[in-house]
């Protein structure tokens, strides 16, 4: 499938035009920032889970594990959608070839954006578990989405769909499974404590 007109294609062309004249090193830096942003979001979520483990907070630990699981599930679904939709990358479909980033090879489909799906999945988990991190997590996820368009790898509608997919599946996973997962962790003996001790339960939004 090729998308050559409509609001998304026009916004894509405008975004690529906005990067004209940008030095090549800036494009290299933007490409490097894409996995870097995902790594940062992943580290923040890992630290949240580690903090829950140290404080014997069953809800925080269970929430972090569920957020990772929900994000991976969203990524898997995004890959499945790519195979079904077969949307050509905009750097080939629109005829715009002068992009900041290298155009992915043929067969590497565009819809939806995997990077954006992962970013918003991780960010949603962080927001649900530690709302005070929203001011950091959400801008990082938005920066990831924007970078995919500016690099020329995705249409705007690709990243919008990825954001909805990552956020929706991760939120549903955490909110629906947090009570049983917390109860399961509470039943496990805590390391270094007397037999029968358990993780305490605190609100994940604390």
Total helical elements:
7
Percent of residues in helices comes to 55-70%
Strand content: under 5%
Number of strands: 0
What count of domains describes the coordinates? 1
Order of helices and strands: HHHHHHH
What is the CA-CA span between the terminal residues? Answer: 46 Å
Residue windows where pLDDT falls under 50 for at least 5 positions: 191-201
The CATH architecture name reads Up-down Bundle
What is the CATH C-level name? Answer: Mainly Alpha
* Shape designation: elongated
Radius of gyration: 20 Å
Characterize the structure shown:
There is one protein chain. The protein has helices at residues 7-18, 24-54, 58-85, 90-93, 114-129, 134-150, 156-186. It is mainly alpha-helical. The chain has a single domain, classed as Vanadium-containing Chloroperoxidase, domain 1, CATH 1.20.144. Helix 3 packs antiparallel against helix 5 and helix 5 crosses helix 7. It comes from Streptomyces physcomitrii. Its main location: membrane. InterPro entries: PAP2/HPO, PAP2/HPO_sf. It is found in: Cell membrane.
Summarize the structure.
With 206 residues, this protein is mainly alpha-helical. The protein has seven helices and no strands.
């Amino acid at each position: 499938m090729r998308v050559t007109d409509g609001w998304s294609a026009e916004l894509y062309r405008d975004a690529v035009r906005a990067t004209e004249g940008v030095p090549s090193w800036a494009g290299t830096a933007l490409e490097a920032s894409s996995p870097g942003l995902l790594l940062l979001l992943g580290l923040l979520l890992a630290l949240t889970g580690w903090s829950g483990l140290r404080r014997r907070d069953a809800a925080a630990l269970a929430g972090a594990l569920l957020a990772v699981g929900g994000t991976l599930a969203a990524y898997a679904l995004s890959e499945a959608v790519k195979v079904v939709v077969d949307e050509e990358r905009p750097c080939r479909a629109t005829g715009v070839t002068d992009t900041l980033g290298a155009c992915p090879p043929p067969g590497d489909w565009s819809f939806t954006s995997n990077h954006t799906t992962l970013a918003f999945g991780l960010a949603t988990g962080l927001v649900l578990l530690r709302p005070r991190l929203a001011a950091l997590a959400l801008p990082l996820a938005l920066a990831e989405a924007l970078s995919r368009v500016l690099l020329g790898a995705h249409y705007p509608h690709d990243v919008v769909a990825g954001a909805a997919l990552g956020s929706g599946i991760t939120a549903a996973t955490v909110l629906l499974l947090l009570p049983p997962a917390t109860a399961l962790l509470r039943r496990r003996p805590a390391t270094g404590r007397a037999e029968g001790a358990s993780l305490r339960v605190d609100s994940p939004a604390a």
